[in-house]
Structure formats: structure tokens, C-alpha cells
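Progress note, project year one: complex with NDP.
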Amino acid sequence: MPPKNDFDFDLFVIGGGSGGVRAARRWAAAGHRVAIAEERDWGGTCVHRGCIPKKLLVFAAHFAQDFADAPAYGWQLPTAPTFAWPTLIANKDRELRRLNAVYTDLLKTAGAQMVAGRARILDPHQVQVADQTYRTRRILIATGGRPLVPPIPGADSAITSDQAFHLDTLPASIIIIGGGYIAVEFACIFNGLGTKVDLLYRRDLFLRGFDLDLRQRLASTMVDQGIRLHFDADVTRIDSKNGQHIAHLRSGQKLTADQVFYATGRVPHTADLWQPDLDIATAPNGAIQINQNFQTTVPSIYALGDVVGKRALTPVAIAEAEALLQHWRTGTAANFNYCNIPAAVFSAPNLATVGLTEQEATDRGLDCAIYQTDFRHLKHTLTGRKERVYMKLLVDRPTDRILGAHMLGPEAGEIIQSIAIAIQASATKSDFDRTIGIHPTMAEEWVTMHTPRP
Ligand code: NDP
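Model obtained:
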């Protein structure tokens, strides 16, 4: 390794998303010489093509239910509400510009040098952006992911989440392909905004990996809301004619819509990121392999966030960045703990989860008591809406520890976040039982489930 003074930087971060920005600004603020390169927008996927704009669209879509429910509470709307997609998109873009500036300020204030452009790793200590080469002691890859579209004929006419936030007009109809977070969230968003939605998933029930009871209930709620769910549906070809797209299914069925939206997963964003002779090992899915300290197979090069393919969630990338810096500061192993990471699908209603699913507990041979409740939200006793709330708690019988909590219901993401703290603190069922509820709330049910499922 060249002597320290030969380096322009102590750390060169590639990727200005959640993980990269956190690492760059905290390391710079600690007095190190840091540069960070970003080829698109500061803030990355979460801020510009993910979490934030998605949640704004979720809020927009929810008004449809509020308008429909309002008359039961005595509200009369003078005219039928109308929706202007361009207004929503313009307001959303204004907020994203503000956040872009916030991220820029954070980096500047911390003293990190921002480099606009696509970076390429030339060797273990050199990064090139445009015609400039930077010498650095360490490199951190935090380039995130990009949407994966299967190579079927006509798929290039489809959009992905990258484009969905920038459509000029709200499509009257859309076919969404996939059964993960993005497919389900956007199916609910577009449906709420008035688009006719067909969601196609290749297996028998979407949201594989989440608790089965939640998946089944969400599917039937979405159908009640008018979303057309097609399971065991495989698209083999897409034809486009006169602004319409026709999806051909393996079954022979054809579906037509204004837009086709692929939400079939994301892959690590590593294309042409390093010189071919650099031995950075990757998994078959393209994820960069790292050790317990986020170090790649090239010792001076580290990686974290979506590009390492652990859990593609913003708070995970940020926590990984903190763990890496702590490792650099102290020399102790980072050993990041990926257990009990809470997550929410911002469907209508939300599906949120922390800890083990019932299936995972069964697969591990754990002796679990299952507590569950299924009820109508007080609000809907007046509106007549059929939607129900479902909650499930998994309790390890030998230790009384809570192993998992799962919820389908309004604001389940907000609610499960708090339950995650209890699980992180090793709460037992007895702790839940002696907690007083807040009445009347949905969440009080967490502390009033006294009888396990037979
Ligand atoms: P997911 O990995 O969640 O889901 C991908 C879906 O596409 C799965 O249903 C998968 O099916 C299906 N699929 C994969 N390949 C094909 C194919 N060739 N043909 C047909 N279907 C296919 O990916 P998303 O794109 O929804 O989201 C990416 C990641 O981003 C998520 O995993 C999550 O970590 C993150 N995210 C988080 C959000 C949140 O926190 N609320 C919101 C949005 C994204 P199968 O089940 O058979 O594999």
C-alpha cells in the first residue's frame, strides 16, 4: 500500500444513496478526508425513486377511501372529488428537490468532497470519475440496485418503478407484473388513484416470505377493492399497438392496458464498476461478497447497502454504514445483526412484520404459541367498509419470549415499529400481558390477546 500521504482521500465512497451518504458524512465529520461520487441524484433510490415518493403516492391514494368513508360521518362533499396527477407529481418533485438539497448540505457541512459523475474503480486504491483519477486509502461501494426486467419479447415497452414516478399522465389501466413489495404497493396506489389494475404473479400467492395469514387476507382485501389479482400467471410476450399494451399469458389469456409495469425485483448495480482484472468476488445474483466487516475480497474495498444483497432497506443500509464506521474506529468486528429487522409493505391497508413468521418457527422446530386477533376497525362500524384488521403474535413456549409480530391493518408500519423495540429488548408475553392498553385503539390488541390459538 502506498504511504498515507500519497492518497488524495482516506475514503472514496461510490454512490450517494442512504448508505453511502451516511458513511461519507460521518467519516468526514470525524476529521477524515472523504470524497463521494454520485452519477444521478443525491439521496439515491430511497429519496428519488423509492421510499419517499412512494409514500407520498400512498398518501395521495388513501384520500379515495377517506372521501368514500366521509358521508357515514356526516360529511357531504359538494361535488365528486377529482384528482390531478400532474399536481401530485409536481408537488412530489418539489419535495424531492428540497431533499436533494438537504443531502447536499449534509455532505458539504461535514466536509466531504462531492464528485458528480459515474465512478469506476481502476485498482485497489484508485477511482476514476470522468477524466479525473483519485487516489484513496479505502473505497466504499454503495451503488445500490436497479430494477430487473426479465428478457421477454416486448418487455422494453414496459415501465419500472424508475419511470412510474414520472409518468406524464395517470394511466387509465395498468398491468403490474411481480408479487413483491413494489408490485403490491403500486397496485394499491394506482387502484386508489382510479386506475384499473391487473396484478400478475407467477406463483400461487404474492408476498412470498411474509406470514401466510397476512398474505391471504391482503389478497382478499385487494380483490374487494377492485384490484384484479392473477396468480400462477406468467407473461410470455408483450405487444404494443396504438398506445395500448397487450400482455400474452402462458395460459393463452391476453390482457390489455395503457401501461405494463415490471416489479420483478432489483439487482445489484455493479455494471462496469471496476476493471475486469480486479478480483472483487460476487454471488451468482451479482451481489458483492463481503466478510463480517463489509470488506470485499479486495482488502481496501468495502461494500454495503443493496449492492451486497442482504436486506434491501434504507434503514439497514444506514445501520450497516454506522457499523462499518464503528469497526474502523475501534477495530472490533462489525458482525451486523440481520435478525428482527422490521418491515412494512405500504399496501392498503399496510402489511407489517417483525421477527419470525409462523412458517419459519415451524421450520426451525420451535415450540410456539400463536396468538391472533381478527376484527373490524372501530372506524368502519359506521362506514360499513368490509376491511378487517389482523394481528398475530408468536411466543416461544419454553422462554415466553416474543419471536414475531405480524399485522395487516391501517398504519401497521407505524405500529409494528414500536413492537420491534419490545422484541429487540427481548420482551416476553408476560411483559405484553402486564402492559396497559390505550383504549380504544387497534394496537391495544397486542396486550389483550390472552388465549393462544388451539
Ligand atoms: P421483491 O424481491 O420484493 O419481489 C420481486 C417479485 O418479482 C417477486 O414476487 C418475484 O417472484 C417476482 N419475480 C422475480 N423474477 C421474476 C420473473 N423473472 N418473472 C416474474 N416474476 C418475477 O422485489 P421488488 O422489486 O418488489 O422490491 C425490491 C426490494 O426493494 C425489496 O425486496 C425490498 O427489499 C425493497 N423495497 C422495500 C419497500 C418497503 O420497505 N416498503 C418498498 C419497495 C421495495 P418470486 O416470489 O417467485 O420470487
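The mean pLDDT is 97.
Residues 150, 178-183, 185, 201-203, 208, 263-266, 312-313, 343-346 surround NDP (CB under 6 Å).
No further modelling is planned for this target in the current period.
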